[in-house]
Amino acid sequence: MCGIVGYIGDGKAKEIIIDGLKRLEYRGYDSAGIALCIDGKIETRKHVGGIENLEKIIDDKEYESNIGIGHTRWATHGAPSDVNAHPHNNEDNTVTVVHNGIIENYTELKEALIKEHGIKFRSETDSEVIAQLIGVLYDGDLHEAVNNAVKKMRGAYAIGVVCAHEPDNIIAVRKDAPLVAGIGKGCNFIASDIPALLKYVREIFLIENNETIVVTKNEIKIYDENGQTVKRDVFHVTWDADAAEKGGYPHFMLKEIHEQPKGLEDTLLRRLDKDGRIKLDGITMTKKDIESFNKIYIVACGTAYHAGLVGKYTIEKMARIPVEVDIASEFRYRDSFVDENTLFIAISQSGETLDTLAALREAKRKGARILSVVNVVGSSVARESDDVFYTWAGPEIAVASTKAYTTQLMCMYLIGLYMGYTKGVVDNEYYKAMLEELKAIPDKLRLVLKNESLISDLADRFYHREQIFFIGRGPDSGVSYEGSLKLKEISYINSFAIAAGELKHGTIALMEKGSLVFALSTQDALFEKMISNIEEIKARGAYVIGITKEGNKEIEKQSDESIYIPDCPDELTPLLTVVPLQVFSYYVAKNRGCNIDKPKNLAKSVTVE
Ligand code: M6R
């Protein structure tokens, strides 16, 4: 994820900024850059790849200053490249900007800057628009130019700005993206994240939404959105660097579980236009294309495959096109029925999973249209697809996938809904209602996370079990597979998932006293069937934890314990039910003393067969 560091003071800005950027490396990035104010000019250096690439091109004694800003980029608009890396400058290189987040109306702003001011853009990024806009508005006062620019910008951002004509201050603004200011002695800092600054300072101002800061060597002034100065208490950081990287959470996995509401908001809101309808910016698939598809293959591995299992229910229901979900390592070696009327959807967090990539190539060879759902911009899967539907989970560091999964599910809903509406299968009323329900999901997920201690209590009681089952019907069966995978990969417990209707065809033989079963029962139309399944397994001595929607009190009569998720349409429950299962797995693994973020035998990205 993008990182920002800025410095002003008596020290060497280059060294301090590079050091700060290195402290943010753990978050993942694809390019890095720095801009220093040197002799009344902005000197910018940036490079694709690691910070070591950047260091090679700034290994120059003349390249030094006591004011500058730096950035590590996680590509969003435009592939990773030197030119798309930050900082971005205005046309005459007098204003330079680093930016985290997204400018939703950048196309509109860009077109106006081109039309009204003849600006020539260099990059494909939304961020360059900020630099060009401030450049156009600058009239001798950078603070005022930034304030005026911000009034025109929509979206989420933290920005740091430096101007060649004002080498004595850095201006920074926060709106829905983190920003802090570090208080030094004879120097001050800005950063997107505290770990970047811990080597130098522990006294921090936490900047709030819609605040602007003016940072000079001796002072940090904070202004609210009305331009009034704000008095802020100093926050003293007591964590060590390791804890700070994890934002105070003990593990990346738990941090990423808690980042899901934001990831879902970002994935959804970036696909909605100002009228609240789904927009497919950058996707070339037309109505004619959609009408031509007579089947869809969703192909992926691991957790991404499980997102596909839920996607099948969603897309078949919403778009009325038959969907087959396949494991990439199986698909690539079988003679599938792919032709030019097939839509092939590849799902991959990393975009580098070898089996998924090979399956994609095979489908392409047979003439399918390729749509991928990917988290890493510019990854191999993204580059080889006709169209990409990005998840906006941000970098996922824990090996066990959590926020990538829920954002992949969000994409499944948006794809299904868009295709169904375009084909006329889904009417306007359903389309609008479903989008409203999707918008409500992040807050509902926050409520689920408020029950974390209830789930961790369960984990405390059951972490020593050696065999745990997950059952469900319809979309709940897809989530069961994911719950089971989560548990086995980080806690090494032998867990097993099965569509509940299949139990009596064999697996019920394993049910006995001591078996622990999570029974996902969120589908109204299948609720009674699930109740019967629960009765059957309880009769064999199993201990059952039911998961259902608030209000389904009936479950309490049959299960030993119940977990409730907030009410929502049946189609959308997977976005919520998976979360208690993730939290349960996390605390079970913690109780068992496992290496949660890096489980044994597993890699984050599987680039071998
Ligand atoms: O990067 P991808 O989404 O293509 O990775 C696919 C699987 O390797 C991945 O989901 C894996 O199953 C996770 N470790 C599960 O938590």
Q: Tell me roughly what share of residues is in helical segments.
A: 25-40%
List low-pLDDT spans.
none
Shape by Cα distribution: globular
Distance between the termini: 28 Å
Widest beta sheet: strand line-up: 3-2-4-1-10-9-11-15
Task: Report on this structure.
The two termini are 28 Å apart. The model has no long low-confidence stretch (mean pLDDT 94). The protein has 20 helices and 25 strands. It is α/β, with parallel strands linked by helices. Strand 7 (155-163) and strand 8 (166-175) form a beta hairpin. It is 37% helix and 23% strand. The chain has an 8-stranded antiparallel β-sheet with strand order 3-2-4-1-10-9-11-15, covered by helices on one side. A 7-stranded antiparallel β-sheet has the order 5-6-7-8-12-13-14. It folds into 3 domains: 3-238, 4-Layer Sandwich (Glutamine Phosphoribosylpyrophosphate, subunit 1, domain 1); 245-449, Rossmann fold (3-Layer(aba) Sandwich), CATH 3.40.50; 452-591, Rossmann fold (3-Layer(aba) Sandwich), CATH 3.40.50.10490. The structure holds 5-amino-5-deoxy-1-O-phosphono-D-mannitol. Residues 301-304, 348-350, 353, 356, 399-401, 485, 489, 602, 605-606 line the site of 5-amino-5-deoxy-1-O-phosphono-D-mannitol (M6R).
